[in-house]
Amino acid sequence: MKYTVAIVDDESKNLEILAYYIASYCPQLEVVAQLSTKKSAIKYLQFNPLQILFLDIVLDEGSGFDVLDEFDYSKTQVVFSRAHDEFALKAFRYQAHDYLLKPIEIKDLITTSDSLINKIKSNVFPANDTLGGLRNQFNSGSNKPNRVKIIQRTKVDFVKADDIVFCQSLPGSKSEYHTIDDQVLYSN
Asked: CB-hemisphere CA count at 13 Å for 97?
């Protein structure tokens, strides 16, 4: 089975390279569209559902985030690509599957491709890949306010589970928690 892919990047060389890499190293993915402007991306994506979107952040007249604001990507895995990591946090707020730094390394693309396919096969998409499942685990069988204990270097915080927007693991068995009030907490 082939998984449909669109690539959005305002630099034609980047479009060509990524399409070539996908065709050469990710045989289960099929590039069905290469789009170079924000306007063409929005128009295409509104009427052509697909499974995977590789999206540059800085575009000709706006951003990749503007593109996502204009269509329902709840059944699309989104992978952002950018030469710098300054938009990584915002990308994950948009429930991005991954954030690849340019120039894209083939091994990173293959790893991302494999994890994308696994998520699609498991029917895990941005619409249902949220903390909702984690919250349900916290809420089962208890009427008490549910809190997550975050052990930091000098203190312990107890944060309401409903206040956690997302968390991610960091190197060295550490975790990073982002809350609804834009607070970032690190556990040891």
From this structure: 29
pLDDT digits (tens, 9 = 90+) for 21-41: 999 999 999 999 999 999 999
Q: What CATH superfamily classification does 3-121 receive?
A: Response regulator (3.40.50.2300)
Query: How far is it, in rounded angstroms, from Cα 34 to Cα 85?
Result: 23
Domain-by-domain residue ranges, the chain? Answer: 3-121, 132-187
* Residue 10: φ, ψ to 5°: -85, 0
Please state whether the predicted TM-score (pTM) of the whole model is above 0.70.
no
- Radius of gyration of the chain measured on its C-alpha atoms: 18
pLDDT tens for residues 74-89?
899 999 998 888 888 7
